[in-house]
Amino acid sequence: MEVESSKQKENKTMMAQHDHNPDKKRRRKIICLGVISVILALALIFLILGLTVFKAKRPVITVNSVALSDLDFSFDVARLRVLLNVSVDTSIAVKNPNRVGFKYKNSTALLKYRGDVVGEVPVPAGKIGARDSMIMNLTLTLMADRVLSNSNLYSDIRSGTLPLQTYTRIAGKVRILFNIRVVSYTSCDLEISISSRNITKQQCHYKTKL
């Protein structure tokens, strides 16, 4: 029985390795296709969840109450001017309908008289948890020096009714795969009776957008 030469053994080894190469390549292709399929399936699942269950929703602002906490009015005959102090307490609820937290930035609640800003109060930045609500109690005080220059003031006082408007804007973001910016507004048109010192008419408006 002849003993195989070293060259013959080497040739057989190379042939065996060559026979296994197609199998290795086939397995690699199958593994790569499997990984790609899993990645695509996960991406599709996240997309569906992002468009349905986790779809970004606008925060909802509702006005719980608006009350006149202070109204002082008098004429300064010597200086021919009106002395007017007004404070309005407003309570608003901000509801986050999302399944993730809503972070909102620093903002300012405004008190307006015929379009002019006559009072303001800061609304500090914060966070509202998933599907949670936050109550904000704000006091808006009229700054007399801002309203006295308005030419409509004297005629409104003579009529006995002072028209004011509260305005609050809350802007922030929710993170669902990526940050989504959301903004919500509320404003209330008020008519204040100077003689009875109360709010005789109130109409609130709401607006939200992504």
From TrEMBL:
Keywords: Membrane, Transmembrane, Transmembrane helix. Residues 92-176 form the Late embryogenesis abundant protein LEA-2 subgroup domain. The keyword Disulfide bond does not apply. The chain crosses the membrane at residues 30-54. Residues 1-22 are annotated as: Disordered. Gene3D superfamilies: 2.60.40.1820. The keyword S-adenosyl-L-methionine does not apply. InterPro entries: Lea14-like_2 (IPR055301), LEA_2 (IPR004864). This is Late embryogenesis abundant, LEA-14.
